[in-house]
Amino acid sequence: MDIKRQCPMHYRRGITLVELMVGITIGMLASLAIVQLFASYEGQRRSTTVGSEAQENGLMALVQMEQDIQNAGAGLTDPNTLACNKFFTYLDGGSGSGGAAIPNFSLNAVSIADGASNGNDEITIRSGGKFLGSLPVMLSLTMASNATEFYVSNPNVFNVGDLSIVAQNGNCTILNVTHVHTTGNPKIEADPVNGAPNNPPASFKTANAWPSYTAGAVAKSIGSVTARTYSLAAVNGVNSLRMVTADVATNSVKGSEILAKDIVSLQAQYGVAPANSQVVNAWVNAAGSTWGNPNAANARRIKAIRLVLIARSGKKEASNVTGTCVNNAGTNNGPCAWQDTAANPAPLIDLSSDPDWRRYRYSVYQTVIPLRNIIWANV
């Protein structure tokens, strides 16, 4: 008898096409979700990173300017110096063609060059080379307008090479000390020689009606005068805060430094007090006949500087993230400088020179800085 064994049939099943397509679809959806999550995270990370960089740039720039403005006027706050309405200056540049008056010479602690309605301001801070100052002394004899010898009550406060000033009745003459005589009749000399570029020949003094000074006029050594000007400049296509250092007496630039990048607006105002007061009661733009170029009396009323720096993120967003801002000054194309009043409107901010300004984020840094050297002078 044949015995037939039947072997069970084994079926091998794989993945069907439908199952494969379903799996691929689920995988693609999961991958898409992960990519979107990563893209969102990366976008937030970049916004945070560049936003932090903008904050650092703005903060460092503000701290630098604040420290500089606090020291403005060091060595230049003698009441007689602050009363100068007209400076008589001369500079021989050494070209052999003779010299001329120094243009726009000023010893004001701080000057603002207004950038008008849609421009950025420039801020210039001045200080003397003798930060502790030197004692003002008096002339003991009347000096003619073309004199090179000045008889003084105490010559020991002067050094050869010092930039010095003689002041009386609002007239102020700038000179270089070439000799100091401490015996006999004490005097200083300001001869028109090499190494004394601010001492003119007698013919220049006569032609330009330099004043004479009577006994009792004040003479003071200021050593030198340094001016640092803060302004915005495009560096490799990026708006940056720049500081230029200059020697006022030689009208020459000594150095230029980029302090911070992505600074898109710099605006400032004078804080002014009534005459013979130290309390600020108004904030004004450096414009118009009064504050565009303040005379000595008005310059003494400037007791503080209020400024704003606006830093921009380096990342351009995909859509608009910044809009206009309205304050008492009007409609700002960008963030407002500060909360103002109708009596003291803030400077207008206008970033619209960049057509994509709405697609950037901005950080605003503003502060009020008292001019302590002017306040301590009690003028």
From TrEMBL:
Transmembrane region(s): 20-39
GO biological process: type IV pilus assembly
UniProt cross-references to InterPro entries, sorted A to Z: N_methyl_site, PilW
Highest taxon of the lineage: Bacteria
UniProt KW keywords: Membrane, Transmembrane, Transmembrane helix
Keyword Transmembrane helix: yes
UniProt entry tagged with the keyword Methyltransferase: no
Protein's recorded name: Type IV pilus assembly protein PilW
Lineage: Bacteria, Pseudomonadati, Pseudomonadota, Betaproteobacteria, Burkholderiales
